[in-house]
Amino acid sequence: MWWEILICTSALTIGIGAFKLLNKSYGLRWIYGILLTTTLLANGYLLTIGNIQIFSTSHVGNLVSEKTWLQVRVTEPAEEKAKSYKVSMEVESFRDSSGWHETHGKVITYIQKSEEAKAIEYGDILLLNTRLNESKSPNNPGEFNYKRYLQFHNIYHQCYIDASDWINTGKNEGFLIFIWSNSLRTHLLRIFKQYGINGNEFGVASALVLGYKGAIEAELIRAYSSAGATHVLAVSGLHVGIIFVILNNILMFLDKIKYGHIIKGILLIAFLWFYAMLTGLSPSVLRAATMFSFIVIAKATRRNTNIYNTLAVSAFVLLIINPFLIMEVGFQLSYLAVIGIIYLQPKIYNWLNPHNWLLDKMWELTAVSIAAQVATFPLGLLYFHQFPNYFFISNLIVIPIATLIVYAGILLFLISWETILAAWVAKAMYWLIWFMNYCVQLIESIPYALTESLTINITETWMIYLIIITFLIYFAYKKAKYLHVALSCTLLLVSYQLYQGITQSKQLKFVVYHVPKTTAFEFIDGHSSFLVADSSLIHDNEKMKFYIKHHWWEVGATNNQLIDGNKSVSKRVKKYGIGFFQHNKKSVAVVTDQSSAHASQLLVDYLIVSKIKHLDLEKLTQDYEFETLIFDSSNPKWMTQKWKQQALKMRLNVHSVPNDGAFVVDI
Fold it and tell me: Given phi > 0 = left and psi -120 to 50 = alpha, else beta, which region is 196?
C-alpha cells in the first residue's frame, strides 16, 4: 500500500511542480504543499521500515534459533574488556543439517581473552560455534535501555564465545579504505607511545586527535563530564574545523591557478572524509564532515551559502543514509549545539565589548560556551541527569589547549621520522595534556561543580525547549504577545512539575533490584528511600548509579538511607536467624539458611530467598506464611528458574528476579 502511495504522490508532485500555471497561482499553492509533504512522509516511512533489518525474512534472527556454526565478518576493531574482547560482526551464513545458507544480521560478540582473540582485525572472516541470544530489556526500573540502543543500530542479538568455539579463517573481506584507515590509526597510536605519551595522557591524546576512546580511564572521563568538557574527548565539529583550517591554508596556493578552486575543493573533501573514517565515523564527525563538505562545494562552485540551509541539508543527507541517526544522543547534541552557537553566540557576544584583545577572545569563547549550553542543556538533563555549573570556566581553559594539542598531534605525525624534533613536540604535547587534565580535575574538585539527580522526562524536555524558543522569539521581535506565550509555557512547566512532586510525595513502593550476584531491596516512601543491600554494592558508586540511582531520580527519591544488609540486625534476626524488615505495615523476611528451627510459623508479606544453595520449598511453606515469594539476583539464574517451576506447581505466588527482572509493587 505504501509503495503505491509513494509512487502516486511522487508522480503528482513532479507533475504539479512542472505545471507552471498552478505554481503561479498563490491560492492553489497549498495543493503542491500537501502533495510534497505527503511524498516526504511516505519516503521517510519506507526508508525507516527498509532500514529495520529484523523485518527481513533472511535475517539471522528469523532463521537460527539453536547453537550452530556461523560465518561472520568483523565490522569494527575489537574492544578490550575486563575478561573478553567485544567485537561487532555481520553474520554472512549459517550451517544446518543440509549445509551452509546465506543470511545477514549484526551481532555483538564477546570472545574469551586469548592471543588469537587479541589479533582479530576489522574485515576478518571468522567461524563461530554459538547460540545467538536476544538482547535483554532493562532489568531495573529507570535503568538504561541497552536493548533499544542496540536496536537503533540494527543489532538484536549477542553471544559469548569460549576460546575453543571459534576459528579465524585467515581471510579478510573488509573494505580496503577502512582496512587502511584502521591500520593507519593503529600506527599513529603507536607513535604516541613511541615518544613517551602513556597513561591518561595517551588516553586523552588518542581520543582528542584520533577518536579512539578505549584508553581513557573511567575516573578521568567522569572528571571531564563533571567539568562540562566531555565534548573535547569526542572528535566533533571543533576537531574537524581545525583540520579544515589547516588543510585550507596548506592548499591556498591552488586558488591562484586555473580550476585550482575545484581541485582544492576535491582535495579538501577527500581529506575531511578520510579524517572522519580515521576517527571512527561518529555522528558528530559525520555531521561536521558533511556540513564542511557542503561549504567546500559551495566555495568551489563560487556560490554563497546560508549556514542554516547547509546544516539542514547535511542532516537530511545523513538521515537518508541512516534514519536511526536521529536517535543518537551525539547526533542530537551536535546539531543543537551548532544551531545554538550560530544563532545565539553573536547576540550574547554583543552584550559586552571588551577593549582588551585577550579579554575580547575570552568573552568570545565564553559566548560560544553559553550559546551551546543553552541549546543542549535540556537534553543533558534528560539523558545524563546532571549539569556542570562551571562549564564556562572549563571551556575557557580546555578549548584553547585542546586546539594546541590537535596541532601538536598532527605535527608529531608529520615529523615522526625526525627523532629529536619529534621527541620535543611529543614532550610539549604530553605536558599540554597533563595541564589540561590537571585543570579539569581541579575544576571538578571545586564545591558545587556538578549538580546531579536532575531528572526530566521527554514531555518536560519539549516544554523547556518551547520556553527557550518562545523567549528567543520575544527578544527578537520585542512584542508583548510573545512574552505572554513564553510566560504561559513557563507556568505550564512549573504546574506540571508541582503535580509530579505531589504525586511522588504520596508514593509507597517496595522494590527488589536485579543486581548480579547481589541482594538489594528497598522501600520508597514519598521522597525518601530505604535501601538494604550488600556492602559491595553500597560502596561501589558506578554500580549504584547504573542499577539504583536512575530509579531514585525517576521517582524523585532525594532522601536516601543506605542499610548494609550484611550488618543490619534486629531482635527478630537474633531470634530466628533471618533478616526481618518492616515498613508501613508491610513486612519482609530474607532467608539465607533453612537450618534454624521456628517455634511457630512466621507471617510476612514478602519472603526473599537470598544466597542459598539448597532450598526445600515444602519446609519453607511450613516455616513461613507469605504473600509473595521472591528469588533475588544473588542466586544463580538456572537455579532460580528451577525453583520457580517448583513453586508454580505448588501454586505459590512467586517472582524470580534473575529471570523476570526487578520486583516492583505499590504498597
Answer: left
